[in-house]
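Many introductory courses stop at the sequence. We go one step further.
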Amino acid sequence: MSSSEPPRVDFSGLVVVADPEDPVATEVRDFVVESGHEATVLDVFDAAQMFTVTVDDTAAPVVEPVLPMMLRLPAPPLLRISFDAEFQLNECLAHLWAVAALTSAPVINRPAPGGLGTSVSASAALTELRAGLPVGSVEVFSTRPPEPEGAVDAAGESGGGEGSQWWVQDLASWTTAPWPQRPPGSGPYRARWSDPDPLFESVVVLGDHAWPCSAVELDGLRLEERSTEIVAQLGLQLASVVWRISPDLDRARPVVVEPFPDVEQLRMVWLGLGPRLLKVLFP
């Protein structure tokens, strides 16, 4: 059942495809409206019904209406509600994939040929490989909290130069705890070596522009430049890169790439991000 309200027939503004309760979606909508443009937040079902894709052998596919879009698709439910509901969701997602991939209008998070998902994986090591980065320490997945014993790199060293603390993450709740503590949740789990007291910096990226979330001077680390390179390599447009900074502030390593930054991250850089977002959506 739909939880959003489809706009009127002559609507000509931004369509944000997201859960109507998504705070980023509502913040972007409100900002766009306050800037003098139209905007609406539609769930997957209403958004799919709004667009038509026409395929003709003699011409390129046509998407109507031609409207700028921003995709923040919610994750599918972990448990099947019903076969009919799952079938309807998948049909709507397939249609939106075609719409967002083929439309001539600007699309934030335009899907790649491989689908609506991104190249970011729950595995940090796999994400590093896809981003063209050297892989860090060993990474272990398990149905039980993995113990650090035996977790060594190819050279047989614990930590692989990445730190002396074994961190365990619950993949259902995304909470993390240092071993031997256990994160809340019932698994499955992911574990990796890192620093005992890591320092972090987040960088929000939109296309070829980037903004650090803190005011700490880290110019020598080139975090903005490196973040845009990583995001582009992963086929993303709007994302955030979380960097682990060494205690002496001389080294930085990306530890998380978030393809759907949360509202707190975006608010910290909104003075730069907001105007840039308008230029991308309404060129």
